[in-house]
Amino acid sequence: MSTEEVLRPVVVIGGAAAVTAVAGVVVDLLLRRADARHPETPIWGLLRSCRVPLQFVLLTSILLGTYKRSQLAESKDAREVITQVLTLVLIASVAWLLTKVLAAAVELAYHHYKTKARDSARRRRVRTQLTLIQRVVMFVICTIAVAAMLLTFPQMRAVGTSMLASAGVIGIIAGIAAQSTLGNLFAGLQIAFGDLVRIGDTVVVEGEWGTIEEITLTFLTVKTWDERRITIPVSYFTSQPFENWSRGGSELTGTVYFHLDHSAPVPALRERLHEVLLGCATWDGRGWSLVVTDTTPTTMEVRALATARDADALWDLRCMVREELITWLRQKHPYALPKVMTAQAPLNGAAAHAADVKLP
Q1: Cβ neighbours of residue 80 under 8 Å, at least 6 residues apart?
Q2: Pick the CATH number of 195-244 from 2.30.30.60, 3.90.950.20, 3.50.50.60, 1.10.1660.10
Q3: What is the mean pLDDT of each run of 10 residues along the chain (360 residues)?
Q4: I need a surface site. Which of 10, 61, 314, 332 has the fewest CB within 10 A?
Q5: Is there a contact between 184 and 218 (Cβ–Cβ < 8 Å)?
């Protein structure tokens, strides 16, 4: 093997790698400067995540365009194998680059909307729609990339020609087999654009209280208050009833019920509730009340009502009201707490006679 045959692949591959590395450094430097000059927009910082796939695309393109001319492979079979591998890597790199650019574009669009919109519900709705649109486009990009990679094989082209003849039958079979998946897919699009639920909404599903953490094309993830994750198919939200505490605004009204003795001082308890709310940061000041809602032969039911800005604040507020009022009643008016009435049961004749008999 001559010196030229040894140096030729080193020069070609090394030169392509050097050009790619220099281009990556230059692009990264320009994006850093643009990000420093324009801190009001995150686009330049987001585009920096595209540097690595861009380098892969550039390196593969240079090698694909120069290796034939440099005659790195002498045999025809070797050249075909190298061309096939480089083509597959190039297709995958282009798909990777497109997904990164798409993610940057989605984040930029949401950033612009978030700076203008003040309503948190609208922001969550736009975030949900953009996320699902991103997932749909990413799915299309990956599907096209896989199809393009398969079509680079001559055998697959022949198979593709024969498959077109039976596409109708295969489509029917695939539609029946993927009926559930397609139903979830369309349900996901309905959720995104029908504004049923959004990322960050507080919901009650199957008796579980939590927050929508993630929405995909096929399932949703609900994060419960104790940090568990519940995965639910998106078709559930289009076919089953559920509670959405964030729809129409995040403000909520909460209630706390007490069972007290009939002698409980309701006016004083009402004043104490107002004092507790004034000292509680989670009360938003929109409304409050304390009324007697029911009565039984031994107790009466008292309902304390208060408002909060969101579900998390409402939970803390209800716990605070319950604790403070019970403590106040126990310290100031212990007689108002419910009592368990007991009395000696009347004895019949046989039981009374047995009670009078004294054991030796």
Answers
A1: none
A2: 2.30.30.60
A3: 54 68 75 69 69 81 71 63 81 88 81 68 72 81 83 66 49 50 63 72 83 80 86 79 73 89 92 92 90 90 91 88 93 87 60 50
A4: 10
A5: yes
